[in-house]
Design goal:
about 475 residues, alpha+beta, eight-stranded mixed sheet, five-stranded mixed β-barrel, 14 helices, 16 strands, binds 4-amino-1,4-dioxobutan-2-aminium adenosine-5'-monophosphate, binds magnesium ion
Length: about 475
């Protein structure tokens, strides 16, 4: 008989219909009640075993973690917390699980412990919810862009450029590291390497994305990016996924409008399609907060926070305005910032971003027109000679979730900026060709996918929203 997923079963009206389910045992109580989960939903199906007519050898093998198939009839449930249950006629153990050795005991485990057994953590309620939401957000992103007529462009993973110019790339080579070819000057001879030049994993698909936008108008990328930044924080990964739309004939305002619309859309999509999972995570956070003193608890729960976010416009502020807000703040005057804000031109630390978002404006903020010296070479220069058409979107609890800009479309200004920043024009001549042949105003941004998943799930560590996190000194699984 065909297997029915538990999500579907829980929505059926019980009429003694015969059904087969397959899944993994969460718990088995009183030799009678199996809580069965198959990953389609956070909710378990109660399977009632007729223990008088089931051989003892089978009963013994129904243990936490075991894979089983059960066939029986669906009836209204007497127990609380569920509407239906399956009265099993047959139970087959497909894969045994030694209860003594199974690392996931039916109790609450810490997130840190679960990170060490990331290969099994999908089987917990929390991670089940997180990764179903992650899936939905990815789908919603593709749907959003597809419905708007954007083209999904696959930009390369291996490249010879460092788009952001931050020098945080991972090398790609097939050299024998014990015997690296060198030239007469003793330098590494990349001519002998696989690609005949020095190559690295991409930090961003933007530059290639711009080439696409100059032909298709509107494109987006959605792929993995790699950064060898040695930041061991709860918001940085060495391998993360990024969504990078790039639009011809867009200025910075169009860019901000699109980013805001995208964020509203995908959060609303998750609220509509992952209601149960978000409810579960909301309750999980409330339970956690009960251990904190009243004044440290959040004003809004997760569900309220998400609804607040989609029902309010983001605040748009220039960097210069933000600096004066920070400089004048009591926080700064009382020296509560680790990095005090005195001068115009400094890069904002995450404590400053969080102050603006969580204390001052109390909602998502889009900061624009940053000093050119703290931003990448490709951003469009303003007439003041000091700032560029950059935008960063800052979210409560997350900090920067989006970074983008209007691009410098004027060849001369771009070349001049590259010279100032020591970026060799010969290596990027293909990029400069877009400015030589039919250049036009254009803009784009990068949305950090894991930071989005962090926000929507209310999780606090980015390692808990990607299946197998890669961070400094850690590359398990
Ligand atoms: O601000 P970033 O560095 O911008 C770019 O890469 C541009 N090329 C994007 C563009 O305009 N097309 O990165 C964009 C976003 C950040 O706002 C953040 O959300 C995320 O990517 N991000 C990271 N997420 C996790 N771990 C890291 N190490 C990240 N670095 C950036
Ligand atoms: Mg950035």
């Amino acid at each position: 008989m065909a297997r029915v997923k538990i999500k579907e079963i829980l929505g059926l009206s019980p009429q003694n219909q015969e059904i087969t389910v397959k899944g993994w045992v969460r718990t088995f109580r009183n030799n009678q009640f199996i809580a069965l989960n198959d990953g389609s939903t956070n909710n378990n199906l109660q399977v009632v075993v007729d223990f008088n007519n089931t051989p003892e050898t089978i009963l013994k093998r129904i243990t936490t973690g075991a894979a089983i198939a059960a066939t029986g009839t669906l009836i209204p449930s007497q127990g609380k917390g569920q509407t239906v249950e399956l009265v099993a006629k047959t139970v087959e153990v497909i894969g045994d699980s030694d209860a003594e050795k199974y690392p996931l005991q039916p109790k609450k485990h810490s997130l840190e412990f679960l990170r060490e057994i990331a290969h099994l953590r999908f089987r917990t309620n929390t991670f089940g919810a997180v990764f179903r939401i992650r899936h939905s957000l990815a789908y919603a992103i593709h749907k959003f862009f597809n419905d708007k007529g954007f083209l999904y462009l696959h930009t390369p993973i291996i490249t010879a450029s460092d788009a952001e110019g931050a020098g945080e790339t991972f090398h790609v080579t097939n050299f024998d590291l014990n015997n690296i070819p060198r030239n007469e000057q003793g330098e590494i001879n990349y001519k002998e390497d696989f690609f005949g030049k020095s190559t690295n994993l991409t930090v961003s698909g933007q530059l290639e994305g711009e080439l696409g936008a100059m032909a298709f108008g509107d494109i987006y990328t959605f792929g993995p990016t790699f950064r060898a930044e040695n930041s061991n924080t709860a918001r940085h990964l060495a391998e993360f996924w990024m969504i990078e739309p790039e639009m011809a004939f867009y200025d910075l305002n169009d860019n901000m409008d699109l980013a805001e619309e995208l964020l509203h859309y995908v959060i609303r999509y998750a609220l509509e399609h992952n209601k149960e999972d978000i409810e579960f995570l909301t309750q999980r956070l409330l339970d956690e907060e009960k251990q904190k003193p009243q004044n440290e608890r959040s004003e809004m729960n997760l569900m309220e926070k998400l609804n607040f976010c989609i029902n309010n416009k983001f605040e748009r502020v220039t960097y210069t305005e933000a600096i004066s807000i920070l400089r004048e703040s009591n926080h700064n005057k009382k020296k509560k910032f680790q990095y005090l804000v005195n001068e115009w031109g400094v890069d904002l630390q995450s404590e400053h971003e969080r102050y603006l978002v969580e204390k001052h404006f109390n909602k998502p903020v889009i900061l624009t027109d940053y000093p050119k010296n703290i931003k990448a070479f490709y951003m469009r220069q303003n007439d003041d000679g000091k700032t560029v058409r950059a935008m960063d979107i800052l979210f409560p609890g997350i900090g920067e979730i989006v970074g983008g800009s209007q691009r410098e479309e004027r060849l001369e200004l771009l070349e001049q900026r590259m010279k100032e920043m020591n970026i060799p024009a010969e290596e990027l001549s293909w990029y400069l060709d877009t400015r030589r042949f039919g250049s036009c105003p254009h803009a784009g941004f990068g949305l950090g996918f894991e930071r989005l998943v962090l926000f929507v799930t209310g999780m606090t560590n980015i390692r808990d929203v990607i299946p197998f996190p890669r961070t400094p000194k850690n590359c398990e699984f």
